[in-house]
Amino acid sequence: MNPNMLIRVAKSAVAAVAAIYIAEFLKLTSPFSAALMAVLGIDMTKRKGMRSVSVRFFASALGLLVASAAFQLLGFQIWVIGIYLLITYPVLYRFKLQDGIVTSCVLMLHLFAEKSVTLPLIGNEIALLAVGLGTAAVINMVYMPNSFRKLEQIKIQLEETFAAIFIEISAHLVDPARVWDGAELLAASDKLEQGIASAESAAENALFQTDQEWLRYFEMRRQHFQSIQRMLDLVSQVYQSLPHGQAISRLFVDLSEDIRVPYYTGKVETNLAVLEREFKSMELPVTREEFEARSALLQLCLELRTYLGVSKALKAKKSDRVKEPEPVNEI
Q1: Pick from 147, 145, 139: which is nearest to 12 by CA?
Q2: Which is more confidently placed, 231 or 200?
């Protein structure tokens, strides 16, 4: 079972037991219903948990109001339950409170079972709601797994995978006959998806914080990965070893090293500009094959500049670097 799911199950168990004890201590009628509400209020992150509790509370309060009116006007008949659902669910859906339909039905059935609508009974239902959802809210806030270590691990693995891809690109430009199975590309895609999901989860747990550092980092890597895929398409069109390709290969070696540097150095960008000036002074292609290869290399340089542009836009230079508790890298 997924570790996050195990945590949710454990939190649900604690919340359910605590809600029952509290409801019994307060001498509420149907105290076990508080456990159901507590379980429904548990969620994977703090923000989702608060939204879940809020939605269920307001939906249940609205449902209790509709049920009271329906039973008072139409009587305590089984078919009135159907009328209640026909009225309540569309209203909850209209206000995006449909996730609270279960808890609202629980309170409605309590009224139906008692065959009465009195202030003490309504007070009991509201108290059950407050105990169950309140317990869930407290449990949600008390413990959520710290994802920093996981994010840091994914970050390191992703950077290592990117570095391996750059080394393969460099090797192919030197020796176009080299065979690569592309395993690192698949691994990078997998790690990127994991990183984005974990960063979103971490942001959801930062209830009162606005730090989006990890989301920005993985968004940068997502754009980098798209650029890498385009570069690989261009590299596959280079069928012969050329001085231009060998010169560009050194840039990718530098890129594989700079990927771990936590700020934008501009080293590869500077070397790329020098190479582009040198290429302009070289003789024109002699054969069609050389023309096609050099055309692909030119496009590769343009794509490399796009890649570097993403880094330059999303990362500060070394002189502007500010110490962060959760740093992101440049390339």
Answers
A1: 139
A2: 231
